[in-house]
From TrEMBL:
The protein, known as: Molecule interacting with CasL protein 1
Domain of life the protein comes from: Eukaryota
Family from the record: Belongs to the Mical family.
Subcellular location: Cytoplasm, Cytoskeleton; Endosome membrane; Midbody
Length: 487
């Protein structure tokens, strides 16, 4: 007779793990659970199977059903296709973790490095329908009951990271926080590719890998990759978060999924007349916080004293020394208050990781896009496949919420690339195929990707409408993406 006693310590630990609300708590409860069940989380090949065998608990079983369904997909060949592949993933943001999950399902050994030691971003991400479907398939609702209930199509960055961290750990991914990737240690006759880390005595520095995935966000593009800058007209974004007290009055206030000046001139004119605030657009999402993102006009920021002095250089314009923080708080508060019809009661700023009101102003006048998504380095006859995913591949345009949608597409495409690598496909062909697929990424919209979400897999043909895996030929990547020095 199976022990289904609710006071069973492993059941209690599992419940705590599932409900953990901070990165540290997830790691602690996971390690306690492993210890209690006498499981070694580094035993990545059989960790998940053993966990299932030892944790005979109905709540856990509901989770296994979801994860098993995913794991049984033919693309993963029962986790055998990349059984010899060792992957280092830089960054435990949503895209790094989403990639790590796919690599683990392919059977690879996966180590994730994250320089921060907490998940603290309140800002809210817009989710395209396919990403909601994808996350439900990873049991997002079991980890976060409020996940996309009703018509909600967004989630806070930190909550998404927590869900993906939990799934990663259950699938045998090793996640190290508080450790920074500094560069590569090149192979010797006796050793393979390794990473230089801070702190420099971190045990993950001993890990030898043949695949490196950078998901470092923003402009973190590793050496060897080139990027393009796309410059538009000056665009100043402001994000802010207010505490959600979860009162009945707050529940009544309608979200704004996006209102742009060209569609509602009266709204923006009234805002300017009443508050002196001049915006191009504004979005309001109700999540763990009340989250607003808006594009503000420089002239009104100057007039309201938020920006002290006009400069043509955006870095100087928005540099700390040129911004009056109190005026910025008043500006953001005013816009949020007006756009919700003055109906949000008791508007107090939520705090950011530094304990300050969570308001930020940023420039998205120019955005970066990596020219290539992959390359291969070779030293001492040892090859390293490198790939970029998420914001460091294509910097997203926040107001359109493309970050997660295109970030997850790139995560799947990258997993497909690693699958080909694991299968022993010639490296020039692996890279050429990855670049052929990358050409499609920036054109994807919720309308033009395939609609049969249940058929989505890491195979690009299931997701993109017109994909030609050979549009770039192996000889076209030979000179730019194969960095080979055989010493
Ligand atoms: P990120 O989420 O940025 O994750 C990258 C991770 O890599 C980080 O955790 C970072 O600490 C880690 N890292 C970087 N360098 C190293 C290193 N050398 N060693 C180890 N770890 C490293 N999008 C929106 O749509 N709306 C928003 O309001 C919004 N706000 C944002 C606010 C901030 C402060 C940031 C940074 C991003 C924001 N974004 C927003 C973008 C959004 O978070 C990303 O599109 C999304 O999280 C996917 O990004 P990612 O996983 O590629 O990178």
């Amino acid at each position: 007779m199976v022990n289904q006693d609710p006071t069973n310590p492993s059941h209690a630990l599992f419940d705590q793990f599932v409900q953990s609300q901070t990165c540290k708590e997830v790691q602690r409860t996971f390690s306690e659970l492993c210890h209690h069940l006498q499981l070694d989380p580094r035993d990545y090949q059989s960790f998940y199977t053993k966990l299932k065998e030892r944790l005979n608990y109905w709540k856990a079983k509901a989770l296994w059903i979801k994860l098993d369904k995913r794991a049984q997909h033919q693309d993963y060949q029962q986790g055998k296709v990349c059984a010899k592949t060792k992957c280092l993933v830089l960054g435990a943001g949503p895209c790094g973790l989403r990639t790590a999950i796919e690599l683990a399902l392919l059977g690879a050994q996966v180590v994730v490095l994250e320089k921060r030691d907490s998940f603290s971003r309140n800002n809210v991400l817009h989710l395209w329908p396919y990403t909601i479907y994808d996350l439900r398939g990873l049991a997002a609702k079991k980890f976060y009951g409020k996940f996309c209930t009703g018509a909600l199509d967004h989630i806070s960055i930190r909550q998404l990271q927590l869900i993906l961290l939990k799934v990663s750990l259950l699938l045998g991914v090793e996640v190290h926080t508080g450790v920074e990737f500094k560069g590569f240690v090149e192979p010797s006759e006796a050793t393979g590719w390794m990473a230089e880390l801070f702190p420099d005595d971190h045990p993950a520095g001993k890990f030898q890998f043949d695949v490196f995935i950078s998901a470092g966000g923003g402009r973190f593009v590793p050496d060897g990759f080139r990027w393009k800058e796309l410059r538009g007209k000056l665009a100043i974004g402001i994000t802010c978060n207010f505490i959600n007290h979860h009162s009945a009055a707050e529940a009544q206030v309608a979200e704004i999924s996006g209102v742009a000046r060209i569609y509602n001139q009266k709204f923006f004119q009234d805002l300017l007349t009443e508050k002196g605030i001049d915006l191009e657009n504004i979005v309001y999402y109700k999540d763990a916080t009340h989250y607003f993102v808006m594009t503000a006009k420089k002239k009104s920021l100057l007039k309201m004293g938020v920006i002290k002095q006009d400069f043509s250089d955006a870095n100087q314009l928005l540099g700390q020394a040129n911004v009056d923080q109190d005026a910025l708080l008043r500006y953001a508060h005013g816009a949020a208050h007006f756009s919700t019809g003055h109906r949000l009661p008791n508007m107090q700023f939520a705090l950011n990781h530094a304990g300050q009101p969570d308001v930020a102003m940023f420039d998205f006048t120019c955005m970066h896009r990596a020219e290539n998504a992959s390359l291969v380095r070779e030293r001492k006859g040892k090859k390293l496949l490198m790939g970029l995913v998420g914001d460091c591949l294509v910097e997203p345009f926040w107001p359109l919420g493309t970050g997660i949608a295109r970030g997850f597409l790139a995560a799947f495409d990258t997993a497909w690339m690693v699958r080909s690598w694991g299968k022993g496909k010639p490296h020039l062909e692996v890279v050429a195929e990855r670049e052929s697929i990358y050409q499609l990424l920036s054109q994807t919209t919720p309308e033009n990707i395939n609609k049969n979400y249940s058929a989505f897999s890491i195979d690009p043909a299931t997701r993109y409408q017109h994909v030609n895996l050979n549009s770039i030929k192996a000889n076209q990547v030979r000179n730019t993406q194969i960095l080979s020095i055989t010493l």
